[in-house]
Amino acid sequence: MNLDTLNWKILKCLQENARQSNAEIGRQVGVSSPAVSERIKKMEDAGIIIGYKTVVSPLDMGYQLKAIITLHAFIGKLKPFLEKVKTYDEVLNCYRITGNENIVMEVLLKNQKHLESFIDQLIVYGETKTQIVLSHVIRYKEVKPVK
């Protein structure tokens, strides 16, 4: 699907606030609500828009730690880990990467004791390194047109 300037303006609005109405988006980009609705539907059908999420505050839900954990898998342990990681509630995001480590995970934990027990589950699959997240510098930055 070819994304024209109007589609990018609509995507910008949705990335800023996906809950705003099509009428509000239409006012911002200069077209009717039905035109916005049609373009959004086409972008969903084309796989450009892949979903809508609610962002929650982990701290207000009782979580005290967010961490980045890398894993350098032991020989023969990567494939089993790739299946096991899908079962961990702590893992928000998991990436298979190039370099010395095989995996990068963003995890959410109740406290330090929870972190310790989670790492204990991981070390059977490989060597881990953990960094505690102090704050977000960039969060949910919008995707812009390729130049």
TrEMBL record:
Pfam family, any one: AsnC_trans_reg
InterPro entries: ArsR-like_HTH (IPR011991), AsnC-type_HTH_dom (IPR000485), Dimeric_a/b-barrel (IPR011008), Tscrpt_reg_AsnC-like (IPR019888), Tscrpt_reg_AsnC/Lrp_C (IPR019887), Tscrpt_reg_HTH_AsnC-type_CS (IPR019885), WH-like_DNA-bd_sf (IPR036388), WH_DNA-bd_sf (IPR036390)
PROSITE patterns documented for this protein: HTH_ASNC_1, HTH_ASNC_2
Keyword Transcription regulation: yes
Residue ranges annotated for the HTH asnC-type domain, each copy included: 3-64
SUPFAM superfamilies hit by this protein: Dimeric alpha+beta barrel (SSF54909), Winged helix' DNA-binding domain (SSF46785)
Keywords assigned by UniProt, alphabetized: DNA-binding, Transcription, Transcription regulation
DNA-binding keyword on record: yes
Domain of life: Bacteria
Protein name: Lrp/AsnC family transcriptional regulator
